[in-house]
Design a protein that fits this description.
Layout (H helix, E strand, L loop, with lengths): L1 E8 L9 E5 L8 E4 L1 H7 L3 E2 L3 E3 L2 E8 L15 E6 L13 E8 L21 H5 L26 E8 L5 E6 L10 E2 L3 E3 L2 E8 L10 E8 L9 E11 L8 E9 L6 E9 H5 L6 E2 L2 E17 L1
Parallel strand pairs: 3-9
Antiparallel strand pairs: 1-2, 1-8, 4-6, 5-6, 6-7, 9-19, 10-19, 11-13, 12-13, 13-14, 14-17, 15-16, 15-19, 18-19
């Protein structure tokens, strides 16, 4: 059984005219299925869905798992859910969209169909006196018109599936790089490691890359399958990159969070993990017996995909 909240507004979402109903069939345009909701809430203040199309416009759902408490919103101690219009730059400058919408949450405990009334309508549609008075225009020359507009909802069966994993298994790769002082390559790639059915690889620029070129060690984590992700699939990763020191208290660390999609780069990290001057100084303890050790650890992974 679905619990629905609906309203009507123009070009923004308001609290005007809220209604609450229950029904036993799913939303026709879009739904999100979230596994491990608590883990999603732990890492994301706001989650925005993939874009979907309805009524000739593009939309997305914005979910605040712990509530939207930014003024003037008042979502404290609630889950906040919004409908957001997308691609407004393609609309006319004076665009206005009148929309009647509903937002849903599914009751899994009841998980049953409710009896449907055979007649739906308004008990107080219009007062008889008002209707009979020809001055009001409803009954003129003993003639009147009634009409009905019926929207039959046919679920598309499309939903967004979100899978969240904290501290995934096999999520650490320790990479030893021998003969570090003799390297001539501008970029090095580690062996692949597999975690959460995805293959990953560390990329390292011994002499820096981007803003770190010539002054810093640059390190990144690549998702091998990124280029094969579909337009409705994405992977979010929260990971730590480390340069190990012989003194464990002196490891250099950087924590990165990013979305991997088929449109974005397949590798994320930092141009300036640590200064080359500090790295190459022998007594600092990062290069031991001319071997540098770098680690990548996946801390949190979210896989999102629209399926039908």
């Amino acid at each position: 059984m679905y619990f629905a909240m609906g309203t009507q507004s123009k070009d923004s979402i308001t609290e005007l005219g809220i209604m609450r109903t229950k029904r036993d069939f799913p939303p026709k345009d879009f739904a999100i299925r979230i596994k491990q909701f608590s883990l999603l809430a732990e890492k994301h203040e706001k989650y925005e869905s993939f874009t979907f199309e309805a009524g000739g416009y593009k939309w997305s759902l914005r979910l605040y798992p712990k509530g939207n408490t930014s003024p003037p919103e008042n979502g404290k101690d609630h889950i906040s859910l919004y409908l957001a219009i997308q691609d407004t730059d393609s609309l006319p400058k004076t665009w206005e969209v009148n929309v009647d919408f509903k937002l849903f949450v599914f009751n899994q405990i009841e998980n049953k169909y409710l009896a449907m009334k055979t007649v739906w309508g308004f008990d107080q549609f219009l007062p008889i006196g008002t209707f009979n008075d020809a001055f009001n225009g409803y009954l003129v020359d003993d003639t009147c018109v009634f009409g009905a507009e019926v929207l039959v909802i046919k679920p598309s069966g499309i939903f967004e599936s979100i899978h969240t994993v904290k501290e995934p298994s096999n999520g650490v790769l320790t990479w030893k790089i021998p003969y570090f002082s003799k390297l001539v390559s501008t970029i090095l790639e580690s062996e692949e490691f597999t975690s959460e059915n995805k293959n990953w690889r560390i990329l390292l620029y011994p002499n820096g890359n981007g803003s770190g070129k010539g002054n810093s060690l640059s390190v990144y984590l690549r998702l091998i399958e990124a280029e094969r992700l579909g337009p409705t699939e994405k992977v979010w990763a929260n990971f730590e990159l480390r340069v190990l020191n012989k003194n464990k208290d002196r490891h250099v660390r950087a924590t990165i969070s990013c979305w991997y999609t088929f449109k974005e780069f397949d590798a994320f990290g930092t141009h300036t993990l640590m200064p080359l001057e500090d790295l190459r100084e022998a007594f600092n303890g990062f290069v031991v017996n001319d071997t540098l050790t770098v680690e990548a650890e996946l801390l949190f992974v979210i896989g999102a995909k629209v399926v039908s």
